[in-house]
Amino acid sequence: MAFLSGLLTIGLLLLLTGHLFSITWLQQLHNDAMIAAAVMFVMIGVMHLATPRKLTYMIEGWLPYALELVLISGVLEIVFGIGLLVPAARIYAAWGLILLLIMMFPANIYVAVKQLPAPGGLPAKPWYTWSRLAFQPVYIAWIWWCVR
Question: Where in this chain does the entry annotate a coiled-coil region (predicted)?
């Protein structure tokens, strides 16, 4: 839900900025949503690289090379996030992010089933960890809508 809050906040701030300063490009919700997604994925990717050990618990014990997988996912989130802003790479970046979200889904299921804390110090309450699963398709739809 923190990720969704970031998407919505950044997107709405960009939309407001577009209207306040008459920036036509930022007055289009589609563009604001794309920039918001790029910013959020780059931020999450940087977090994966800066503090990878805080995320390995999500896959340790059932996937090998947990640290390496967290680092790789961080790099991919940054690369694909930036790719959303490059017109020639946008569709490939979107597909990359969608596939990455699908591949990360089992880790989120594991966190919910094992009643582990959500990443980033977010609540470990079952209602929160299970509700996070419902937002994964929302993020996929958001990305697809941005590049359609």
Answer: none
| Amino acid in position 44 | I
CA separation for the pair 148, 116 (Å, rounded)? 36
Q: Is the dihedral of CA 76, 5, 91, 134 positive or negative?
A: positive
The amino acid present at 45, given as its one-letter code, is G
Asked if 132 and 105 count as a contact pair (C-beta separation under 8 A), the reply is: no
pTM exceeds cut of 0.70: yes
Q: What tens digit of pLDDT does each residue of 84-115 get? A: 999 999 999 999 999 999 999 999 999 889 88
At residue 56's C-alpha, the angle toward residues 124 and 114, to 5°, is 40
Contact between 39 and 48 under an 8 Å Cβ cutoff? The reply is no
For the chain, the domains span 2-147
Give the integer Cα–Cα distance in Å for 139 and 37. 9
Per DSSP, what are the bridge partners of residue 118?
122
Residue 84: count of CB within 10 angstroms of its CB: 27
Q: Residue 121: left if φ>0, alpha if ψ -120 to 50, beta else—which one?
A: left
